[in-house]
Amino acid sequence: MSDSSEAHVPSRGLRIGQVVEHIAVLGREMRRARSAPFAGRVRTAAQLEALFVLAHAGGPLTPGELADELGVTPGAVTQVADRLDAEGLVERAPHPTDARSKTLRLSRAAAAEVARYEASVATTLEDRFGALGDGELGVLADLLEKTRRPASPEPIEGNDG
């Protein structure tokens, strides 16, 4: 028979479900604000994701790198990049070491718009994070960062679940 305190500990699957639920709520709030940047033009989710990835990449990305980050095909990235390029939000440049490839980066105007949008979303969501102190918010950000990529397939020593 199990200890009664263990019976009240939610399973790992339940906890993951709770996290996903909370992220979905935040995602809905962010989607409501999609038209805020870029002169009120509504962006598709794929366009916003591409803009955010490019804004935080730390430098230009190849279309293949952007596709990997977004988890889509290079063809899908080409379509998104073509649209963003046509609107002056993304700039293409020759790859510095591969003459066959191009790189993508945000235009200065787009970078400024993404920064304004992120600040606006942070202000909008401030009340959702009001119960967290700065340290807790830092821990949450660090923990979510760990979920950006699948865990290594190699077993972690000392981790028994």
Automatic annotation (TrEMBL):
Pfam families: MarR_2 (PF12802). Gene3D superfamilies: Winged helix-like DNA-binding domain superfamily/Winged helix DNA-binding domain. SMART domains: HTH_MARR. InterPro entries: HTH_MarR-typ, MarR/SlyA-like, WH-like_DNA-bd_sf, WH_DNA-bd_sf. It comes from the Bacteria. Residues 16-149 form the HTH marR-type domain. This is Transcriptional regulator.
